[in-house]
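Suppose you are handed only these lines of text.
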Amino acid sequence: MRMNRRGFLKTASVPLGVSALGLEPLAAAQAARSSVVVVGGGAFGAWTALHLREMGHTVTLLDAYGPGNSRATSGDETRQIRCGYGDRELYSQSAFRAFAAWRARQEEFGVSLLTETGRLQLSPDWTPAMKATQATLAKLGVAVEALTQGDMRKRYPQMNPEGMGVGLLEPGASVIRAKQAILAVAAAFKRKGGTLTLARATPGRASGRRLLDLETAGGVRLEAQQYVFACGPWLPRLFPDLLGKRIQVPGRDVFYFGTPAGDARFSHPHLPNYSEATYYGFPSIDERGLKVCPTTGPSSFDPDTDERIVSPHEVRRARAYLALRFPALKDQPITETRVCQLENTADEHFIIDRHPAFENVLITGGGSGHGFKHGPVIGEYIARRVVGATTDAAFDHMVRLARG
Ligand SMILES: Cc1cc2nc3c(=O)[nH]c(=O)nc-3n(C[C@H](O)[C@H](O)[C@H](O)COP(=O)(O)OP(=O)(O)OC[C@H]3O[C@@H](n4cnc5c(N)ncnc54)[C@H](O)[C@@H]3O)c2cc1C
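From them, the structure of the protein bound to flavin-adenine dinucleotide can be written out as follows.
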């Protein structure tokens, strides 16, 4: 579905940055006496808050640095959405539903969030996961195309598929403007009557199996009936006993390489997203340059204090990769960089569950490098869990805390 002009005109304006969101002072959150407080305004928390508000609940959304901030995992410029998930069919179904939700929401928010790029998964040979992706996407009615090395050479002569015998192309896969999306979700939450506050909060006093309040860094206490902790990579330090070993927080250096002057071959729509075991990335979108992300990096990262500066070692590695896969870019300068952290579980399944000690606390995170796209669907799912509505039992089981 394409956004029409009327769609743009009828919608409220979308803030250009965190400061334009008009965050409420903490006193307003206290006065609101929320039925639910959501701590963390990333992809999981912001969408949860919006869905809860749309269900009619009084909701406060707290974020230590503001929704879409540059330390958050959701604060990068772009994230990919694709339905291919190997044999993890529940995530394929979720991504399929998320596609429809993103399209509808970009219309509602009046901001262009999706760019349809396609995604090419490269592999030396067919893998069981690729075969499973093909089968699942066929079931969902999502187009997918198998390419040989010869096909890839013909279709994308700007890419050298050396060493890659197979390419699986999902033509409908897209890139989401991630930071812009979070700002738009937070703005919609506020417009619809939610309270949005800049504050860091930790669990406060408890009575039996109920958490009574949150305590903010400034010593202010905030009460609600239900609490959702959607703190991404900060979760292990908020709940060290419970999550310290379940969620790992490695760092990733992300690069944008310049494209040659007057050369559109590496820009959307001439190149799809690409993905292989060592690297993945996107074509140049919004003239940023070709995105190049390694699948490995430093094993631990502090989301509060670590500097967001890429390492010379990762620069050298990324250049060596470019020289092989996109030789025409090997001498191009880096135009932008990002340093981001993941919040990985061992099996890469999300964690969404009640805190075992508190019946009114829900923990949600463990996006494991693939959580962003599911935001609108997972936010609704979490909201339903918060209010005790029925949810898919198989999904509940998959994301339970007690597994593994
Ligand atoms: C390099 C990289 C590439 C990725 N690529 C993709 C992709 O292509 N597609 C995809 O779907 N996913 C991708 N992901 C994964 C995706 O970005 C994450 O799964 C998702 O953004 C996590 O969202 P979150 O809400 O759990 O966490 P976050 O976005 O980190 O949000 C947590 C929020 O909580 C706030 N917070 C933390 N502690 C507190 C506190 N005590 N009080 C108040 N606020 C607090 C923080 O300020 C932050 O805003 C990628 C991740 C990385 C690192």
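What can we learn from it? The first strand starts at residue 36 and ends at 39. The pocket of flavin-adenine dinucleotide is lined by residues 39-45, 62-65, 69, 72-74, 79-80, 200-202, 230-234, 238, 252, 254, 293, 340-342, 365, 367, 369-373 (CB under 6 Å).
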